[in-house]
Amino acid sequence: MPVNIVSQLYKIHPKINEELLEQKVLFLLRQIGKAEATVSVVLLDDLAMTAYNQQYRSKAGPTNVLSFPSAEDSENIEEFIVPVPVELSSQELGDILISVETAQREALEKKISLHQRLTELLIHGLLHLIGYDHEISNEQAEIMFSQEKELFHSIQHHHIWRKKMPQLAINVDHIATIRQARGGAEPDPVLAAGICELAGAKGIVVHLREDRRHIQDRDVHLLRQTVKTRLNLEMANVKEIVAIALEIKPDMITLVPEKRKELTTEGGLDVVANEKKLRKTIKKMSEAGIPVSIFIDPDAEQIEASQDVGATYVELHTGRYCDAENEKEQDKEFRLIEQAAELAFEAGLRVNAGHGLDYRTTTRIAGIACIEELSIGHAVIARSAFVGLDQAVREMQDCIDRA
Predict the structure, then answer these.
(1) pLDDT for the residue numbered 84
(2) 186 lies in the same domain as 232
(3) Of 63, 250, 296, 322, which is least packed with CB atoms within 10 Å of its CB?
(4) CB atoms within 10 A of CB 99
């Protein structure tokens, strides 16, 4: 195996997606022309790194990353000094040791995710393995820094393949919207949910609003009896809807902000400002065995607050990404979502995403390694008017599978 991830972390640390790190190293190996080479990445705590740093560099305390090229004959890493990259005779490049504790502190200082900091350290360590050394001279330091910058830019704009794609959950609210426009019985969101499941959807989402503008109480009760995959009840944190959720016991709930005059949910829930009320509701749901997700903007403070109040999931708001007016703006919003997904994962939260996703914007979001599920409604229901609901769901699933 060309990449060997070894964890020697014995204390509690943020969660690390080792599959994601492996795929990043594989990409970097291809970028430096070493696709067939083997490299080991060892994840340590500060105590273990301190011992290595003292033994091999005669320096006290931990450092963030050490590289041990397999080509070196000496026990001292600092004796492996070459001014330019070299062709190694062996396909084994060597070992990269990273202190996760130090990397986490540095990530917090830089206000980035741990995974992003680990990526930077992997690049730095890998360049050392093939002969770059910033300690030789200022000139060599500039050359190495330039290579690091180029590789980081490349990996940011490269799709990292993932083994398991996120699941597709379909929101059938707008089927009920059409029904309510005439006040009759059709089209039936319960029937629509069944069609979505048969087409491959792994979950059904409905938002029971206080004003009952689309989904009705009867719909929710029937869906609880008929949904075969997973029923996710979106809801405001209000007494009446909380009572209904506790009665029907959906497979999960998603707490969202709700304004009576809005056409659709306009942004994430402010968990920080509503911490006390949310904590109380989540405690009730937990006692009833109902996992809670909170719909939030991709913001570090909201992620931390979501963890503090006891949520199991966060659903990251993708609306600004979908509504971006140009590629630069969309790329910026994508990076915020990607960073937020990694931060939430590291905090021990499970991660979903949704809002505004369509057949053009879904594939890129589906490629974010830490996201488990995408909640999509309007785009699929709109598409179904032309191709039918079954086909519309299958086409959206294809967008996810292409990630």
Answers:
(1) 40
(2) yes
(3) 63
(4) 27
Q: What helix, strand, coil percent values describe the chain, rounded to 5?
A: 45, 15, 35
- Mean pLDDT computed over 317-322: 97
- Torsion sign (Cα): 29, 33, 37, 42: negative
Give every CB contact of residue 128 below 8 A, 6+ residues apart in sequence: 67, 69
Question: In the predicted model, is pLDDT for residue 1 greater than 80?
Answer: no
**CA-CA-CA-CA torsion sign (150, 152, 154, 157):** negative
Q: What is the CATH number of the domain that holds 92?
A: 3.40.390.30
What pTM, to 2 d.p., does this model score? 0.85
Q: Rounded to an integer, what distance in angstroms lies between the CA atom of residue 192 and that of residue 169?
A: 13
Task: Look at residue 80 and tell me whether its pLDDT is greater than 60.
Answer: no
Are both 319 and 359 inside the same structural domain? yes
Q: Are residues 302 and 257 in the same domain?
A: yes
Report whether 376 contacts 168 (CB < 8 A): yes
CA-closest candidate to residue 191, choices 230, 233, 222, 235:
222
pLDDT tier, 265 (very low <50, low <70, confident <90, very high otherwise): low
**Nearest to residue 370, comparing CAs of 339, 396, 399?**
339
Sequential DSSP letters for 62-110: --SEEEEETT--SS-GGG---SS----SSSEEEEEEEEHHHHHHHHHHH
Separation of alpha carbons 81 and 163, rounded Å: 38
**One domain, residues 213 and 290:** yes
Residue 162 maps to a domain = no
132: nearest Cα among 214, 67, 196, 202: 67
Residue among 368, 319, 375 nearest 340 (CA): 368
200 with 105, same domain: the answer is no
Which residues are known catalytic residues?
Answer: 207, 234, 355
Domain contains 69: yes
